[in-house]
Amino acid sequence: MKRLLFILTCLFLCSLQISAQTEKARISIFVGEMLSWNLVEKGHSTKKEYGNGLMAIDGTPNKFRLRYKVYDVLFGDCLSDTIEATYYYRVYSELPGFPQYKYAFIPVLRNSKDEYEIIQMEDARKTIDGQWVLVKPVLGLPDYFNKNKLKVELKEPDPKCEYGVNALEVVPVLIERIVVSK
Question: Which residues have a Cβ under 8 Å from the Cβ of 82 and sit 6 or more positions away?
């Protein structure tokens, strides 16, 4: 009986490991430049008031189709020098309604239809020695930027961006967060 319990426990742990590896195989992270965007579906919002000054906003996000030129693949695979992906964004006041950076650090997931979905976008800049750095706090990792930022010399200087974190160093931390949250 103990042997059977041991075998079942091992099988369960192996299945968890395989599940995490499968999830990581669906993730890619690249640095790219936006070529085009298209609003596929306009979202809507509904304001609900509950009294005593309590209010909530509910609704559906705007759905965009974005096309990027891929400069560097930092994790996973990207079989082309361009990528098209869906991006859902919950800002209703103005369009395009999503961050537009000259270069973006972009984690994507391949969904069950083998299409890419953008998880988030972060401002990426190239240093004078050719490394990609993120120059603002990373969504979902609020303390990471402040704990790991270093003074950087950018290829295209920007006085608002004196500090950054190496994009390659963020990749494993972000992947772990994505896999755990799924």
Answer: 35, 67, 68, 69, 70
Output the CA angle 119-125-129, nearest 5 degrees. Answer: 130
Can you list the pairs that 146-152 forms with residues at least 24 positions away whose Cβ atoms lie under 8 Å?
152/125, 152/127
pTM of the model: 0.74
Q: Which residues, at least 6 apart from 18, have a Cβ–Cβ distance to it below 8 Å?
A: none
What are the structure tokens assigned to 62, written together?
């705007």
Give dist(CA 63, CA 23) in Å, integer: 23
Q: DSSP assignment of 46-76, as one string?
A: EEEEEETTEEEEEEE-EEEEEEEEEEEEEES
User: In 3D, which of 159, 109, 164 has the Cα closest to residue 132?
Assistant: 164
In 80-131, at which residue ranges do the beta strands (DSSP E only) sit?
Answer: 82-89, 104-110, 116-118, 122-126
- What is the DSSP pairing of strand 122-126 with strand 132-134? antiparallel
Q: What is the pLDDT of residues 91-114, one digit of tens each?
A: 655 555 567 788 999 999 998 888
CA distance 50 to 52: 7
Looking at residue 91, the DSSP 8-state letter turns out to be -
Compute φ and ψ for 43, nearest 5 degrees. -80, 175
